């Protein structure tokens, strides 16, 4: 499921950058599989809790799994929302070169990958790095918002596309938040301590 979500994020950024409507449609079509996987993992995790009555670390692992699949499914939904931006923009000429949005995409893809790696390896230190990386993503989002807002004020004809690009950037920012959530749950799974990395 994590691999499919990573691919969905990568494809969403690529579809936006290249204005590739066929790729955007592919993201929409693939979302059902991710939704089905979430339900399957949740069902099996709850069955294990009911039938095996796990304790301590085993219970925390299942609890983390339940939380992580919810975050992964939401990330996929954000990828779908970016794909919808691509379809709405219908290959309009760019109002400005896309530089920071692809950078954001690269950062959040790596955050998702490292969040999943931290889960698999039970790596608290790697999970902790997601907090500072999320700050970088948040900073990029704020910069993109300011730039696009300035463009909307100076060039009213840019408002529609600038709004769509803001939405795409906001979806990437939310993916970063969800990746950080997985990091928080990894820390809980390993140490039994709840920590807020989204400060």
UniProtKB/TrEMBL annotation:
Top-rank taxon, per record: Bacteria
Entry GO terms, CC: cytoplasm
GO BP annotations listed: intracellular phosphate ion homeostasis; negative regulation of phosphate metabolic process; phosphate ion transport
UniProt key word Transport: yes
Matches recorded under InterPro entries: PhoU (IPR028366), PhoU-like_sf (IPR038078), PhoU_dom (IPR026022)
Residue span, PhoU domain: 1-86, 101-186
Predominant location category: cytoplasm
Gene3D superfamilies reported in the protein's UniProt record: Phosphate transport system protein phou homolog 2, domain 2
Subcellular location: Cytoplasm
SUPFAM superfamilies documented for this protein: PhoU-like
Pfam families hit by this protein: PhoU (PF01895)
Family: Belongs to the PhoU family.
NCBIfam families: phoU_full
Name the record gives this protein: Phosphate transport system regulatory protein PhoU
């Amino acid at each position: 499921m994590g691999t499919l979500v990573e691919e969905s994020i990568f494809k969403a950024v690529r579809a936006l950058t290249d204005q590739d409507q066929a790729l955007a449609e592919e993201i929409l079509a693939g979302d059902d599989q991710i939704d089905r996987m979430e339900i399957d993992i949740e069902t099996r995790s709850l069955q294990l809790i009911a039938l095996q009555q796990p304790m301590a670390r085993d219970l925390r692992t299942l609890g983390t799994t339940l939380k992580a699949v919810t975050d992964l499914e939401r990330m996929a939904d954000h990828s779908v929302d970016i794909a919808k931006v691509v379809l709405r923009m219908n290959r309009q000429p760019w109002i400005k070169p896309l530089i920071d949005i692809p950078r954001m995409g690269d950062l959040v893809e790596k955050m998702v990958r490292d969040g999943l790696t931290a889960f698999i390896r039970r790596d608290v230190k790697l999970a902790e790095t997601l907090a500072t990386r999320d700050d970088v993503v948040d900073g990029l989002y704020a910069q993109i918002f300011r730039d696009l807002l300035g463009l909307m004020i100076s060039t009213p004809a840019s408002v529609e596309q600038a709004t769509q690009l803001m939405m795409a950037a906001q979806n990437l920012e939310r993916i970063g938040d969800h990746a950080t959530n997985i990091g928080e749950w990894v820390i809980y799974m390993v140490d039994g301590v709840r920590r807020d990395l989204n400060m």
